[in-house]
Amino acid sequence: MPDENSEIAAPRPEGRGGGPEGLATRLRQAAQDDLPVAADPFRALADKHGIGEQELLQWLRDAVHAGVIRRYGALVSHRQLGFAYNAMVVWQVPPERVEEVGQALAEDPGVTHCYERPPAPAFPYNLYTMIHTHTEEECRHKVEHLAHILGLPAYEMLVSTREFKKSSPTYGPGLTPPIWAEDGSGE
Asked: H helices within 13-156, ranges in order?
């Protein structure tokens, strides 16, 4: 991955006018594809999408530098690692404390997701977190501890009972961030 001190430009929408087989499209597809388990995974990925390995690696560096890709890493199955219990915890936080509480929750190693959302009239919660633990007891203890140290008495634990779908988003026509589009339009 890129050296922290290297100067690299933002990803460019190369291959303009190249239609569905344009270079930017193939780079975007490669970036969203699973990294193959191979001796040289980036070469295999580049070959699969008909692009050069160095071209792919440079585009990924550029995308990381531009903030389009936050990080490139392994996606593990938390259940297979023993984290079989999870809950979305919704918190009612006074507006003047959202930044402070949001940062504190985001820094806790037991919290995997932390979002602010506008409260609804019948659902006054404005911070949403996901917490993964080994057991229900461990999760409840974690949530009670966070509520206590942050002074948050109003919260609810929404426990997952069944998973219908879990996937990373993929971006195609109409869903493409402008920086990834052939013509920079997002289409």
From this structure: 23-32, 41-48, 53-66, 98-107, 136-150
Tens digits of residue pLDDT in 107-128: 999 999 999 999 999 999 999 9
Pairwise CA distance, residues 156 & 141, whole Å = 13
Q: How far apart are CA 156 and CA 102, in angstroms?
A: 16
Distance CA 142, CA 120 (A): 26
pTM exceeds 0.70, yes or no: no
CA distance 147 to 89: 10
Alpha-carbon distance of 68 to 82, in angstroms, equals 32
Q: Cβ distance 172 to 182 under 8 Å?
A: no
DSSP-based three-state secondary structure for 27: helix
Q: What domains lie within the chain, and their CATH numbers?
A: 1-75 (no CATH), 85-159 (3.30.70.3460)
Could you tell me if 139 and 131 are in contact, meaning their C-beta atoms sit under 8 angstroms apart?
A: yes
